[in-house]
Amino acid sequence: MSIEYLGLSSINGPLIALEGVQDAFFDEIVEFVVDGTERKIGRIVEVYEDRAVIQVFEGSENMSLKNTHTRLTGHPMEISLSPDMLGRTFNGIGQPIDDLGPLISTVKRDVNGLPLNPVKREYPRNYIHTGISAIDGLTTLIRGQKLPIFSGNGLPHDQLAAQIVKQASLGENSDEQFAIVFAAMGVKHDVADFFRHTFEESGVADHVAMFLNLANDPVVERLITPKVALTVAEYLAFEQNMHILVILTDMTSFAEAMREVSSSKGEIPSRKGFPGYLYSELATIYERAGIVQGVDGSVTQLPILTMPNDDITHPIPDLTGYITEGQIVLDRPLHGQSVYPPINILPSLSRLMKDGIGAGYTREDHQDLANQLFSAYAKVGDARNLASVIGEDELSPIDKKYLEFGKDFEEHYIGQGAEENRSMEETLDLGWKLLGRLPKEELDRVDTKILQKYYHPMEE
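The line above is the sequence of V-type ATP synthase beta chain; the predicted structure tokens follow.
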């Protein structure tokens, strides 16, 4: 039997205190009825003896100490699940906002999920094709991986995210089911409309489940959005045997919402004002990716975060780098040169790439080619630094060749059209074509047999 409580003890922004509570537990969902008509939900974030502190998802507007009835539900937040969620648009707590009616489902799951048994995890293999050469060729996304994109304010991460949603697939020869769960946190209305229209116009909306938490939505809702999205992804992957790519943008909004709520609770801040449990909260989200033994599906994560002041040592990218398996870094100077997507490959890395490429996955030369392109592009930086000191005319012939290679590499390999979807074959062939600018003796990262088979010097 549930007990209904009349009135509240105190209201502080989205936080409400209720005294005289019996048998309440952390993370329990609470239902409010305001003035006998308006319904809201919240969750318990702190319990001390008979006092409970509750976060209200929709905000505490219109609520007063006397006009509110409170009922404890006895369960954590749950979301209804169905394969029909693909092609639908929801708000940050999983309620439909696309005017297509309510979701009909008999399945409900706790949004906090259950931790994957480490013994039951399978090592990620095989790649997810994005059609973007800088990712597919050099920082390959592997099924079951978590690979964040580090961006900055004003860089085209939204455009890149939309392009990945439009182009992502399991490769040309795969007949397995593939879908995308897309969650946006704290985005402006024009950005939300951009995502909606892009997905609809490109015809991919039918295999995308979209969750939108807008900038003017309550801050507390932002904290639950990635958990709701990942619960849907886990259901589709582990119960419906689909391969799911989860794109979360922007994790910085999530972390700043956490800081705001933590501050209003009066908690002692840690680095840059963020709560001390920022690491564990990020880990509970990022670790909800992987492959389970005996299940055909997988959950792959591509979280996007904007680095404040482009500072990669800021707590959010810093902690994210500890938890995830690499990063893709967007670069402001490349963006200034009108290179799209402006991916700086030198600080970018995919730690699981080596196990999902090569013969049987992509092509035998993939790993050697990637190693050589990284090495050659690093030497481009050295040549440019030298040219800035002594002038380009004084450079040796080989340094001039590296300068030419660097210009071509940025314009034609990293740079590609926003609508251009390159196959893995095209990406690898383009890499060899660019390496043809360099003398054969400079290619010291490639196996001799592969070099003989794929290297063709570029005619002057």
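Note on the example: The CA atoms of residues 4 and 71 lie 5 Å apart. Residues 366-390 form the longest helix (25 residues).
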